[in-house]
Amino acid sequence: MVQEFYSEFEFRTEIIRSLLRSVLLKTIVPIYKANAKQVQLGVSDFYRLKSYTDEHFRQRLSVAEIALSIGKSVKQVDKLAKDNAGISVKELLDERALIEAKLQLAFSQYSITDITEQLGFNEATNMTKFFKRHTDVSPKDFRQLCRMGLRKS
């Protein structure tokens, strides 16, 4: 490359460019591919985790049970969740249960007790505490607010 740099050949710039491209292809591309493969693995693992939590949130599984089910350690699944969603696995589960609770309360005729059972809570008081902790309103009040909003439209 140094010889080409000092040569008088009219296509020296093209030759140097080609040589540099070859060096980059030989050194940088394998590193890039390795990093890209790691990222893809992380994303597909997170997709498996998210799919599993979406399918099984009603069972109120522990993080350890989820980790075992997808073949990872508790630390690995928590890191996976934090890296990809910015929240813990427990928060992923709670978020999904909360979405379902809101949907059921807003759009179904099921009683709060029935919704409690559907979401895997042992008692209505547990579901009420969970719901209030995340929304600052009780399930009953949330349902009333939603129904008032639907009537106004």
TrEMBL record:
The UniProt record lists the keyword DNA-binding: yes
InterPro entries: Homeodomain-like_sf, HTH_AraC
Residue ranges of domain HTH araC/xylS-type in the record: 47-145
Gene3D superfamilies (UniProt xref): Homeodomain-like
Keyword hit for Repeat: no
Keywords: DNA-binding, Transcription, Transcription regulation
Alphabetical list of PANTHER family matching this protein: ARAC-FAMILY TRANSCRIPTIONAL REGULATOR (PTHR43280), TRANSCRIPTIONAL REGULATORY PROTEIN (PTHR43280:SF32)
Protein name: AraC family transcriptional regulator
Protein's organism: Photobacterium leiognathi
